[in-house]
Amino acid sequence: MTMRARGRRSAVLAGGLGVALVLAGCGADEIDGGGGGGAEAAADSEIDCAPYEEFGDLEGETVTVYTSIVDPEDQPHIDSYVPFEECTGVDVQYEGSREFEAQLVVRTQSGNAPDIAFIPQPGLLANLVASGDVVPAPDQTEANVEEYWDESWKEYGTVDGEFYAAPLGANAKSFVWYSPAAFEEAGYEIPQTWDEMIALSEEIAATGAKPWCAGIGSGDATGWPATDWLEDVVLRQAGPEVYDQWVNHEIPFNDPRIVEALNTVGEILKNPDFVNGGLGDVQSVASTAFDDAALPILDGSCWMHRQASFYQANWPEGTEIGEDGDVFAFPLPPIGSEGTPPVLGGGEFTAAFNDDPATQAFQTYLSSPEWANIKAQVSGPGWVSANTGLDVDNLESPIDQLSAELFQDPEAVFRFDGSDLMPGEIGAGRLWTELTSWIANDKASEAVLTDVENAWPAS
After folding, report:
1. Is 429 exposed, middle or buried (0-12, 13-18, 19+ CB in 10 A)?
2. d(CA 279, CA 242)
3. CATH number, position 306
4. Within this chain, do residues 64 and 38 fall inside the same structural domain, yes or no?
5. DSSP structure class, residue 236
């Protein structure tokens, strides 16, 4: 059943719905930050529906959405659709599935595709485009992306020169978690360069402590956190052009610059003086579950842990996150000089499987900064968008705010998670197992990367 909202005031910006539905005077305190509370707040508000009139009469139409975002993260998404549903008369039917990637392919092949899917892998998007299932995005959606996102985001939603899918949510991976109180007490400064970070690690190690804690264990997906380390260093050390060539296999996987990058990672992850604080020796990095790996920071047996913004959900209940909290994070520094560090991240893309007017209207709504701000207001910690029209103050979590600031920095270079762009048998297979062996069995960097190169599919 479509939820009907009443009473929230809106303002119209030039350019139609593509850039409209500003919730004037709508602050984060006016929409409850959790679950159904957002819908209840919206239900007591007024909406000026003038911006939607250009789409014509959509009353009674339905748009189905299929996604990997499931309970409890699904409810804020559902709540954020209330203004669109109220003003257009469209009923948005949301379906989340933990088997999303496999089932989406099955559904498209059987003629049962959803109207819109939130696709987290650009490679999967390209496959669906190649099979003729996804339709190009409407002009309004494309205009929003060109105005409000870094150009690299549009490239990830583009296949063979045609734009298909706008970015939706995002996550920033290039963070180092630490204890602000512990740093202050010890007199340590946040490092601004990679060399400063290594010097800090050596200073901590000289006291007999282990500066880093790490874990790449993740069941069948063991090894994936190590891919993020490698990608971050390739991006910083070899640069974005080499990063792109490597991800696209335009250079060998074992190119000397990639070997150098993995050795640089090894200066931390395979250094017995640096790891594994509170957890064990170097080999324990391979067996430690990634979601437990930063916890020694809380008892002082570890000082730093590299992990994405989404790690905030893994801290024990009651842990305060912030510059003056129990834990916070700083951007993984650049290599070579001071400056704005590159940002490694991921996200979802809204792909449409038909060009029905209701589908196009909803796709455009999701690409607008206004939707991003509504979503921020009804979400709790753990959600952010790279949309530069997002008001950072609408985000509840300090780490989400920091992520948004990095995404919005015009000097920051952004690149999508490389393993998500590689063929699945590499990025979600052989690379995981080889990097696990690199730590657990002390396999040499060049041998690891050569074995991945030899496993790369011929076509």
Report:
1. middle
2. 35
3. 3.40.190.10
4. yes
5. I
